[in-house]
């Protein structure tokens, strides 16, 4: 069984959708609400993958990614999603080093097919 994934978001309803899809695929994902919680969970058990909402309040994405690399070896794949109307925020997430960045609508469309990849189960 692969390591559990982590999802940084503050939307419990959306997380339920993602965790249900993960569960149906035989995977586990844990919700964290802050970057500090994400790092604490990653220290406790290196995640198979990380999914994050780039609009999480107070998120300093470059610092989070650097810290995540410092506490996990190897660093997990990071999939980020956000509003399609804020292209500059999505571009900044790519530049910060996220492995995959997409609008939330694309994330939802690809959820069933890609959840294993995003949570590190498929390589």
Automatic annotation (TrEMBL):
Keywords: Phosphoprotein. The keyword Glycosyltransferase does not apply. Gene3D superfamilies: 3.40.50.2300. PROSITE patterns: RESPONSE_REGULATORY. Residues 4-119 form the Response regulatory domain. InterPro entries: CheY-like_superfamily (IPR011006), Sig_transdc_resp-reg_receiver (IPR001789). The modification 4-aspartylphosphate is found at residue 53. This is Response regulatory domain-containing protein. It comes from Gemmata algarum.
């Amino acid at each position: 069984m692969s390591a559990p994934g982590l999802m940084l978001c503050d939307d419990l309803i959306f997380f339920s959708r993602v965790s249900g899809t993960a569960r149906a695929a035989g995977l586990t994902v844990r919700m964290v609400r802050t970057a500090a919680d994400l790092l604490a969970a990653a220290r406790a058990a290196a995640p198979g993958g990380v999914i994050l909402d780039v609009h999480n309040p107070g998120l300093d994405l470059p610092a989070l990614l650097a810290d995540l690399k410092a506490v996990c070896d190897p660093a997990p794949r990071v999939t980020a999603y956000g509003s399609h109307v804020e292209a500059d925020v999505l571009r900044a997430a790519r530049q910060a080093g996220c492995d995959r960045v997409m609008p939330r609508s694309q994330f939802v469309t690809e959820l069933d097919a890609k959840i294993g990849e995003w949570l590190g189960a498929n390589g």
